[in-house]
User: Fold Carboxypeptidase from Ilex paraguariensis.
Amino acid sequence: MAPTLCHFILSLLFLGLLSPAFSLETIHNDDDLLLSSILQFPKTQAQDLIRALNLFPKHDVNTAQGDHSVTAPRIVEKSFKFPYLGDFGTSVKDLGHHAGYYRLLHSKDARMFYFFFESRSSKTDPVVIWLTGGPGCSSELAVFYENGPFHIAQNMSLQWNDFGWDQVSNLIYVDQPTGTGFSYSSNDEDIRHTEEGVSNDLYDFLQEFFKEHPQYAKNDFYITGESYAGHYIPAFAARVHQGNKNKEGIPINLKGFAIGNGLTDPEVQYKAYTDYALDMGLIKQSDYNRIGKLVPRCEQAIKLCGSDGGNSCMAAYLVCNSIFNNILSVAGDRNYYDIRKKCEGDLCYDFSNMENFLNQKSVRNALGVGDIEFVSCSSTVYDAMIMDWMRNLEVGIPSLLEDGIKLLVYAGEYDLICNWLGNSRWVHAMEWTGQKEFVGAPSVPFSVDGAEAGLMKNHGPLTFLKVHDAGHMVPMDQPKASLQMLKRWTEGKLSMTEEEGGLAPL
Assistant:
């Protein structure tokens, strides 16, 4: 048996995930079978999560051949109008909707797909980029079900979203990492495994995007997203800030970054699972005591991942996710994205219309993606990022705060998988010069139309907001509140009351 495999199995034995009955002789005799079953677990987990959304992508990852010619442009973009949006007397030019491919600078053959929706209000509004998590889920989930300009009706037509974030911003959605959504490559080496690779790709894309749209280059710029983007967003924000400091290219007017129901500091957040589950009545005290025995092993595993990397990070993923899976086994058919709801069989949400819509030939033609088929969520990309999963991305945030870059962490109160309690704890535990004042700051109501829509705490550039009556996808569950949140935050008025801010209705 290879030393790396032996070390990996011993790590699992040490952390208590495998029974001591697995002797080294047994492992040696069955190492291929054992290793295969262990290494297949993340991909199986990913497929279960994808099926829970009623998504069945035909491919595990998007692969295709790109244009290798020296004269091929770095970015190819077209204005478009969806064929099923209806006729509102608007032209393609009036809509300001764009779709494009960016040829990744540091890749063999990768192309990154993106949507760009110009603001419906003013071209001087901030530029906001949205990143969906997964890892490996397309940002089109947000375009059509959360904060994009439109929603998909049951008859497959599109309806305008009155609370789309393009009401107050120039909005970019990116399919990333490579292999997600309509993004593709013909070379497996272009699949990303680390935040360094992900953030470099996004930074390079922004540089080319602002060359293509120089009229937006000086606008305020904000990074937003949810779920596993709790990893992407801090890494990307740090990369943009570094590029600005080093004068690497076009200066990007980064003002802030927002993480919605994200996974950012796993050691803190995984410890919160049992507390949240008990508080919300998902488990009983006896379950809490039993499952809680896994928590110290998870903490130790994450520390090993942080110091050793490699196989220790795979072991940490397996050990820590056993906490979540044990809670689910007790909770039964609860929707782990919104515990107020139940799942029917494997189905927790039905986002299948998105796949059906985007794979129509007329829609693909409108977007200029040709024969590329849409991969809603890629289990291959998910699997490739496993070694990154248990990394702590909180560590790079304090230096951004110290330089005046704003951070908003918001979370729907009924989400289990990236729950508000774990997010609140890592935000409060983060060490920076304003930590004491932030911890001591009062929680105040976040009100929309005179009604309390959440509870908020703020000091300086840091804000935490627990959103009422929302699960994992806050812009889907509370569209008006999420739009007000974005508007006030980008205007520097989020910590004010409606009366203090003099906010006009949208």
DSSP finds 21 helices and 15 strands in the chain.
